[in-house]
Amino acid sequence: MPSPVFIPDEWTAEDAEAVAAAEHIVLTEPHWRVIWCWREVAAREGRTPGPDDLLSCCGITRSDIQRLFPGTASAVLSRIAGVPE
């Protein structure tokens, strides 16, 4: 059984906004939907999510993720969502 992924309880939306700003990303409703799904999957599954998890959680595709979180999308998303990579 994998060790649980640590999801800090002290993570806040303000933390996400600050990390996103450092990545030159302005968070919109679609960003937040993905962030909450990412955190939900990590907490429920005890692992860092992957792009396929987002398809089942919130119906977003890999190309959507890349558009919303440019660069190495899963790494950027993990930093913004407060989920270890």
Please tell me about this protein's structure.
- The chain has 85 residues and is mainly alpha-helical.
- The chain is built from 5 helices and no strands.
- The two termini are 18 Å apart.
- The relative contact order is 0.22.
How would you briefly describe this protein structure?
By secondary structure, this protein is mainly α. It is 60% helix and 0% strand. Helix 1 runs antiparallel to helix 5.
Question: What's the SSE blueprint?
Answer:
Layout: H1 13-22, H2 29-45, H3 51-58, H4 62-68, H5 73-81
Helix pairs in contact: 1-5, 2-3, 2-5
Output the keywords.
85 residues, mainly alpha, 60% helix, globular
- Principal-axes shape call: globular
The helicity comes to 55-70%
Q: Runs with pLDDT <50, length 5+?
A: none
Structural class: mainly alpha
**Largest sheet composition:** none
Query: How far is the N terminus from the C terminus?
Result: 18 Å
Mean pLDDT reading:
87
Radius of gyration: 12 Å
